[in-house]
TrEMBL record:
Annotated organism of origin: Salinimicrobium oceani
Major site of localization recorded for this protein: cytoplasm
HAMAP family cross-referenced by the UniProt entry: GTPase_HflX
Transmembrane portions of the chain: none
Residue ranges constituting the Hflx-type G domain according to the UniProt record: 200-385
Family: Belongs to the TRAFAC class OBG-HflX-like GTPase superfamily. HflX GTPase family.
Quaternary data: Monomer. Associates with the 50S ribosomal subunit.
Xref: SUPFAM superfamilies: P-loop containing nucleoside triphosphate hydrolases (SSF52540)
Subcellular location: Cytoplasm
Listed PROSITE patterns: G_HFLX
Lineage: Bacteria, Pseudomonadati, Bacteroidota, Flavobacteriia, Flavobacteriales
A Pfam family that the UniProt record links to this protein: GTP-bdg_N
Name of the protein: GTPase HflX
Matching NCBIfam families: GTP_HflX, small_GTP
Span of the signal peptide: none
Amino acid sequence: MLEKNNLEYEKVVLIGIITREQNEEKLEEYLDELEFLTYTAGGEVVKRYTQKMERPDPKTFIGSGKMEEVRQYITENEVGTAIFDDELSPAQQKNIERVLNCKVLDRTNLILDIFAQRATTSYARTQVELAQYQYLLPRLAGMWTHLERQRGGIGMRGPGETEIETDRRIVRDKISLLKKKLETIDKQMEVQRGNRGQLVRVALVGYTNVGKSTLMNVISKSKVFAENKLFATLDTTVRKVVIRNLPFLLTDTVGFIRKLPTQLVESFKSTLDEVREADLLLHVVDISHPQFEDHIASVNQILAEIKSAEKPTLMVFNKIDAYEAEKIEEDDLMTEKTSSHNTLAEWQNTWMNRLGENVLFISALNKENLEEFRKKVYEAVREIHITRFPYNNFLYPEYEAYTDEEE
Ligand SMILES: Nc1nc2c(ncn2[C@@H]2O[C@H](COP(=O)(O)OP(=O)(O)OP(=O)(O)O)[C@@H](O)[C@H]2O)c(=O)[nH]1
Ligand SMILES: [Mg+2]
């Protein structure tokens, strides 16, 4: 059973480790994102703990000295939840809960929880529920018994509460039931998609919170929910859009995030089918985000996982209004110039140059460069259309050939 209450902000500490693969700077970036996720889920981060380690401790993830430090802080400040940046094994989670005597979650847990809060249609809810049960299955034994006092809130909006006494068999049954339910919905959706005819299909993809829904709203005059939180969109919206006289379908769907739980990728298979079946991808990037290049890499990785990396793609760099290059003072001879000091024009001469024509810089919010956006999308859709239907290419002349305002 999913639950989505509006809760008071609960106090949370974050915990992450510095390893050879993940230096201090990277970890801080990850924790920034984890903090945003926590906030989205209804938590307030009061402290971060980091520790340098060769590898995570198999029993308690961080060392026992550090753990004692965390325990003291948690007790003194009445912190309800500790969230780890990496996936904890079921055993680790149990051990840590025993020491800290509070709720212990990992990133996967947190993301699942946000998805549970945000799922509105029965379809999205079924997908989230399936992912939750799959996450729960290996963690069932004795998971909840010592937590009776602190139930509710982040990470508890899931099957856990109601299933305390049940065994794996019941959860397994539930999983196969949900899978069947999804199969039925999938078939209906497939039929629906088939009914959409031969229109070219364009999908907005990108990291979460980059402005996909905002762009969808501007372009299609629809009203998709957009806000400054992660995973504002869970359900897929499809709109028919006409640029000049060329119609196509535009899809807005769930945003991606790094370390996206595999259970979610699997459960959201059918949502991601919209991407898989698209003819053209608009990969939206928040260029004002300091880690936008990492975001692109994560999105590309997920696209590869769902075998959609080779599709024709327009890279849409959004939020140019919010982009600010870091400055180096003229008399500062020490600071080395890095990509964070690039102006937008300088960015265009980096690897972005290799993308050729398939690049756009816009602000969906301030409606900057939208005309160029329309033109590029039109040309790309037209290209697909005339390859597919060579006999009616006369219908859609070059974008520039229009003189009147037909839109
Ligand atoms: N400054 C600026 N903010 C923008 C722009 N476009 C969108 N935003 C803001 O970015 C936030 C996220 O926008 P959404 O459209 O919800 O982003 P999304 O990619 O759909 O996010 P998810 O559905 O959560 O994956 C909102 O607060 C928007 O107002 C832009 O061009 N400039
Ligand atoms: Mg959205």
